[in-house]
Amino acid sequence: MPICITCTHPISHLYTVYESAYNLRLEQCSKCLKFADPYVEHDSLTLLLDLILLKREVYRHLIYNRRTEPRKALGSKADLDSEGSREGKHTLAATKDRQREKDRWWLILKLACGLITVDAFIRWAHLNPQISADVSRWTVETNIVFLRILIGCIIETFAFHGGVMFASYFVLALSDFIRSRRSTSPVEVSGVRQQFKFSLIPLTIFYSSLTKLFLLFLLTIWRPSASKPGGSPYYWDPSYYSSSLVTRALEIWDEDKLDREWVVRNVLGGMATGFGLRVVLDCHPVFTTVVILVGWLAKTVVAGFLKNWVGGDEHSGDKWMAYSIP
């Protein structure tokens, strides 16, 4: 069942379709009196931009409301007959839920194939900057190296998702226990928790990784230049500031001290994943942080076993490990 993206109240339908798919009317939430999901009228580019900007409403739309069937104002006689009895409604709802679960796992598989491949290319470019800058130097050995990196990314992804799902199970149980002990009256369960399924966790993680992979891909194909267009190197003149404290603070942003890719992958990526998991788990940010830390721990342990095989030598293995450890 879909939910209102504003207050998470369950709603039967998001919109009503009349004579054609373009003739529709958005449904109003009975609790907050706002449109249940205005994103049904938005295009994919708007969804992608809002997803990169980490908007809570677009997460709820993509995770819970995407591809839900509308109410048909002019239904056929067969549809009316099947929905007439109570047993027919339950059977039809169960069938739709099973089909939605299958479609969700198929979507997770497609997202995994695309995003893991992009992640493997980004890591390969990080480990082999000379070859990534000159495509003509691509050889059979390069294919083997890229294949090892791809397999390593797949294993790390499974480890991270497994750790997150394992921690989410215990965090949800602990959160429900604390909530029930604090309240003497029956606790109202939100629409997010009513519609929760564990298949939503990997889907949320893949959606959240779009932000970091987008920025990492830009850093891979458009690396910052170390010199001016004329050839003279960039330099920073500290004489503009008289305070040594300000000077030392600004030196943190130097190329040799700040690893932009590490910051984007682990800091920004961790924040985006934590934000997405907070939407789907509907729990306190402390619990979400614990879930992310457990996933990072599982990923780090696996990366320690894979570093020598993926890197091929000790130096590349250390670079892979440094790129994997948050």
Features:
12 helices; 3 strands; 326 residues; three-stranded mixed β-sheet
Description:
The chain is mainly alpha-helical and 326 residues long. 64% of the residues lie in helices and 2% in strands. It has helices spanning 44-52, 56-65, 77-82, 86-127, 129-133, 140-182, 191-194, 200-221, 244-250, 260-281, 285-311, 314-324; strands at 15-17, 24-26, 71-72. Helix 2 packs across helix 10 (260-281) and helix 10 (260-281) crosses helix 11. The longest helix has 43 residues, at 140-182. The two termini are 37 Å apart.
The share of residues in extended strands comes to: under 5%
| Average pLDDT number | 79
Radius of gyration: 24 Å
List low-confidence stretches.
none
Classify the helix fraction into a percent range. 55-70%
Strand order, largest beta sheet: 2-1-3
Count up the helices.
12
Q: What is the string of helix and strand elements?
A: EEHHEHHHHHHHHHH
Distance between the termini: 37 Å
